[in-house]
Amino acid sequence: MDRRCVLLVDDDQDFVLATSGVLRRAGYAVCVATDAVSAVSVAVHERPQAVLLDVGLPGGDGTMVMRRLHALPHLAGAPVLVISGRDPDKYRDAALKAGAAAYLVKPVEPQELLAALSAAMDDEDFAESVADEHAHDLDGRLVLLVDDDADLLYALAAALRHRRLEVVVAADAVSAVAVAVKQHPDAVVLDVGLPGGDGPTVANRMRAMPQLTGMPVVMISGRDPEKSRDAALAAGASAFLTKPVDADDLLAALRTALELA
Fold first, then answer.
1. What's the pLDDT tens digit per position in 148-181?
2. In which domain, by residue range, is 168 found?
């Protein structure tokens, strides 16, 4: 089956990574643009079957980009779905009048996004038809995400929940340990740098508790990768990923850590 191509236009790198992962796992091919000018040029080159478009973009707003896309003959029929964190009462009407097929408000749940996209493309069964060899092996596993970057925390949580994992979150070292003790997660995804203590220290504190002994930890960081990786592995991390974290890479690391690979 041909992969439908979706153009994702957004300047939020974490959102792009998380949403690209959701789309690819649903069977779509994804091309990306991060500003108004490149959005048009990528659309001309890639000829997507649908566009996901942020309202606020470097170089121009989403409404302007949408009008330019609809003016291109080979894109005239491609649905454009606007995804924005702006006040929908203020911007939804303008987006719909400019030709948007839907207006979705950030943060948007993966299921809502895929449902709106398949409906706009008049292809509601497509996302369900793409086989995934690991479709259910992580179902119900509880993962604790620990990071003080709220946007990254949301993006990774959304990606994991889309794969049917249960997710709990913490934003600092102290609450991370408290949540782990209370929830007994199957695995922890832990930032190296945290308020109140670093990731290796948190991992060692958790593992010192009898109820958390043996719990796999995946560490992530945007810091010096060599130094952070050495500290993470010395603290017993199952894997180390550098930011920005790709959702598929994180899922693969969790699968390996949980001995599912």
1. 998 888 888 888 887 788 999 999 999 999 999 9
2. 142-257
